[in-house]
Amino acid sequence: GLGCCGVVPPARTVAALASAAPAAGVKQCAVRHRGDSYSGRSGPSREVRRRSLPEQADIMPRMGGRGPEPGSCQRWLHRNRSGVGFSLLALAYLLYLSCGALLFSSLELPYEDSLRRELRQLKSQFVLDNPCLAPDTLERFLARVLEANNYGVSVLNNSSGKWNWDFTSSLFFAATVLTTTGYGHTVPLSDGGKAFCIIYSVIGIPFTLLFFTSVVQRVMALVTRRPIHYIHTRWGYRKQSVALVHAVLLGLLLVLCFFVIPAAIFTQLERDWSFLESIYFCFISLSTIGLGDYVPGEVQHQRLRKLYKLGITIYLMIGLTAVLVVLETFCELNKLKELKRIFYLKKDKPEDEIKILDHDQLSFPSVVDSVPFGREQHKLSEPFVSGLKAHPFTEDPSNR
Q1: For residues 178 and 316, what is the distance between their CA atoms, to the nearest angstrom?
Q2: What Rg do the C-alpha atoms of the chain give, in angstroms?
Q3: How much is the pLDDT for 312?
């Protein structure tokens, strides 16, 4: 008011006004915010009122309030989320294993019982038809025949010209050993062969894993990453959606080229195999289960048996590579990655990184450094026109 009338107030008056203004503001603030400490009533201070909700949740219980504090059970579950998830995963796996055992037992036990009764009747009828043959002699003969059959050697007349250890059959055996398929229809007979199989497998199985890993990495770049990146950049579809559709199409192509079509071929080449049995053999082989109940190339008078065995070996190697590529494609989906994080342990940071991080936090304790410097802020700090060079600011009058 004094300034508006043209009267210059003395210095003492100015100092009094300056000291009275903050006091008046504080008094008005105290009246406006009831329960404030300045007004003389109990309650949280203005400093607490201006805090964010998470900060108030931490401060209110210490000041006697009822903040939204989670229970001890929730805190324990959040802290041990990985262990709880792994326990549930192990329990689900044991339950799945037990259910599989019950179903297999209910399906196969009646068939096994009927087969045992049929064999007993055949044996009894054979002993009655041949009274001169002693039952003990027959038992020893059958035991020896079955033992030789387990080693891939048969006494039947139709298998006299079939050898298990020629070059192509040995190559097929080596491929089943190194890929851990192991049909079990052909096994080493001599002690030297068994010892060499151990040494050969110890060196060859890691070598095979390294080889397949290198092959799958190169194939993934060609059939998975490049098509997804091309469709994403060409047509602008979301990369996650493109990856999901691509994985499904790749899986269908795998089923068609390495299960359906080979099964139809095996049905024609193997006289005793149905289409279901051929599909069963393809799945058991490419999943490296290798039960050995169905092995191709073991029928009587097989045409071009050596070439057939070589072709099956090539099919197993290429098919196993294709299966690994499809599995790796599905594993790279974001949904599966999020699912794996539930059960996997969190990777601890190396000690050097922790020390460097602590050193940085101690060296730069300012508020500005604690705020993440995002990409948008980095763009804002750059010159607006990328083609022009930023002119440095000086105290030259022209810059002013």
Answers
A1: 11
A2: 40
A3: 93
**Residue 350 to residues 187, 340, 359, 372: CA-CA distances in angstroms?**
48, 22, 14, 22
Task: Tell me the DSSP string of 307-373.
Answer: HHHHHHHHHHHHHHHHHHHHHHHHHTSHHHHHHHHHHSPPPPPPHHHHHHHHHHHHH--SHHHHS--
> Look-up: residue for tokens 């599905």?
330
Q: How far does the chain reach from its first CA to its final CA, in angstroms?
A: 36
Token code pair at residue 202: 């110890």
**Position with higher pLDDT, 5 vs 308:** 308
Q: Tens digit of pLDDT for each residue in 84-99?
A: 888 898 999 999 999 9
Query: Do 315 and 262 touch, CB atoms closer than 8 A?
Result: yes
CA dihedral 83, 88, 91, 97 (to 10 degrees): -110
Q: How far is CA 60 from CA 44, 45, 76, 132, in A?
A: 8, 11, 22, 100
Residue 1: is its pLDDT beyond 70? Answer: no
pLDDT digits (tens, 9 = 90+) for 93-143: 999 999 999 999 999 999 899 988 998 888 888 888 888 888 888 888 888
C-alpha distance from residue 225 to each of 135, 211, 246, 374 (Å):
67, 20, 10, 28
Q: What is the distance between the alpha carbons of residues 281 and 274, in angstroms, rounded to a whole number?
A: 11
Of 259, 250, 203, 193, the residue nearest 225 (C-alpha):
250
Of 204 and 69, the one with more pLDDT: 204
Say if CB 277 and CB 135 are below 8 A apart: no
pTM here is 0.63
The residues near 111 (Cβ < 8 Å, ≥ 6 apart) are: none
Q: Please compute the mean of the pLDDT values over residues 264-290 and round it to a whole number.
A: 92
pLDDT tens column, 140-156: 888 888 877 777 677 77
DSSP, res 80: T
Q: How many CB atoms lie within 10 A of CB 234?
A: 8
